[in-house]
């Protein structure tokens, strides 16, 4: 008789525990806001420094734990011909170097999170590893990203320097090769994701 009384109580406890843990690990989906996000490409040349602004990008972010920040997945896609410098000749040289006739987008996909430092209840410093694909070539990149959670909005900020030639991209040239672009570029971004 004692066993029949204890069993239902234990069973209810298991169900409650299951519901509680389900709430903790519930995945939240976010979509990148193109109008609120910024991605700039900065570089040098034999004449002057330059930068490109991204006009069209999209992305998805899935977080399963906002308290300690568990990122399940992250992907960002940039339309290569939406990179604009304000000078059509430079833009055309950039598109040629990026082989945009064949490769329409530059893509980033998270592969792992190696470290999460909680700074405040809503902000984190995160070391991420992901695959970056440019002009059809994929390389693994490690970055430190600042993450801020603000209600239904998540912001990711960071920067990363790398060489164009790592992705098989020849640095653009202008004026019959008299102006040469430096090989190293820096990407600076603030990506804003809104909850679905």
Automatic annotation (TrEMBL):
Residues 25-194 form the Lipid/polyisoprenoid-binding YceI-like domain. InterPro entries: Lipid/polyisoprenoid-bd_YceI, TTHA0802/YceI-like_sf. SUPFAM superfamilies: YceI-like. Gene3D superfamilies: Lipid/polyisoprenoid-binding, YceI-like. Pfam families: YceI (PF04264). This is YceI family protein. It comes from Winogradskyella endarachnes. The lineage of its organism: Bacteria, Pseudomonadati, Bacteroidota, Flavobacteriia, Flavobacteriales.
